[in-house]
């Protein structure tokens, strides 16, 4: 997380990215600001802090923002993430249940997508549920390479980070938080470079 916090501290362009204190609070999964200013501000992607909280499944912050009257798109809350559901896809999900990194790598290189199963679980969900922490760490470090959606929610509404926290894997939850921050900042910078502004 130190790298992401340093990245945020160096951001002289927070205003250009449209990041209010509330956006940062949601992104860092941290204490909310006392000032309601910026609670409904939109970032470059057009997301309010509540939209960001919905997307990242920050339950406590969702409750707080909704109680304070923040605006957000409730459809985002129900969005399960990208990727198709493969109801009987044992080709990818069995190796994930057993923590077999080499098989997952090989199948990905052969064109297999690291999609979700019928329960909405990604291979990363399965790695964490079954305690394959080293394998999970490997894929978290390479989530961009493998096209993994860290915000994907299973049918219980749990993201990979929620699963890590529920199972007491706090170091991995911290690693996932860092990856979520990096992913968000990278996307907003891309929006800025492309000259897009949906705020």
What would you note in describing this structure?
The longest helix is centred in the last third of the chain and has 24 residues, at 170-193. Helix 7 packs antiparallel against helix 8. With 199 residues, the protein is mainly α. The chain has a two-stranded parallel sheet. The chain folds into two domains: 2-80 and 189-193, no CATH class; 85-178, Serine Threonine Protein Phosphatase 5, Tetratricopeptide repeat (Alpha Horseshoe). It is 54% helix and 2% strand. The chain has helices at 2-10, 14-17, 21-28, 49-56, 59-67, 74-78, 90-97, 101-109, 123-129, 133-141, 160-166, 170-193; strands at 85-86, 116-117.
Largest sheet: 2 strands, parallel
Number of domains: 2
Low-confidence stretches: 1-6
Would you identify the CATH architecture of the largest domain?
Alpha Horseshoe
Write the H/E string, N to C.
HHHHHHEHHEHHHH
* Gyration radius, in Å: 17 Å
Mean pLDDT level: 82
Proportion of β residues? Answer: under 5%
Q: State the end-to-end distance.
A: 27 Å
Largest sheet: spatial strand order? 1-2
SS class: mainly alpha
Protein name: Ankyrin repeat domain-containing protein
InterPro entries: Ank_Repeat/CDKN_Inhibitor, Ankyrin_rpt, Ankyrin_rpt-contain_sf
Pfam families: Ank_2 (PF12796)
Keywords: ANK repeat, Repeat
């Amino acid at each position: 997380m130190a790298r992401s916090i340093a990245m945020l501290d160096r951001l002289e362009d927070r205003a250009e990215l449209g990041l209010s204190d509330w956006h940062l609070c949601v992104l860092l999964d941290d204490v909310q600001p006392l000032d309601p200013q910026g609670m409904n501000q939109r970032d470059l992607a057009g997301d309010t802090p509540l939209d960001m909280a919905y997307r990242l499944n920050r339950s406590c912050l969702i409750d707080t923002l909704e109680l304070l009257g923040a605006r957000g798109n409730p459809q985002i809350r129900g969005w399960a993430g990208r990727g198709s559901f493969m109801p009987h896809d044992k080709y990818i999900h069995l190796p994930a249940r057993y923590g077999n990194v080499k098989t997952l790598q090989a199948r990905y290189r052969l064109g297999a997508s690291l999609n979700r199963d019928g329960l909405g679980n990604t291979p990363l969900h399965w790695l964490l549920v079954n305690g394959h922490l080293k394998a999970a760490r490997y894929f978290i470090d390479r989530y961009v390479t493998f096209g993994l959606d860290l915000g994907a929610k299973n049918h219980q509404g749990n993201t990979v980070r929620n699963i890590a926290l529920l199972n007491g894997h706090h170091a991995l939850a911290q690693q996932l938080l860092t990856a979520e921050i990096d992913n968000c900042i990278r996307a907003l910078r891309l929006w800025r470079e492309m000259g897009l502004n949906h705020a």
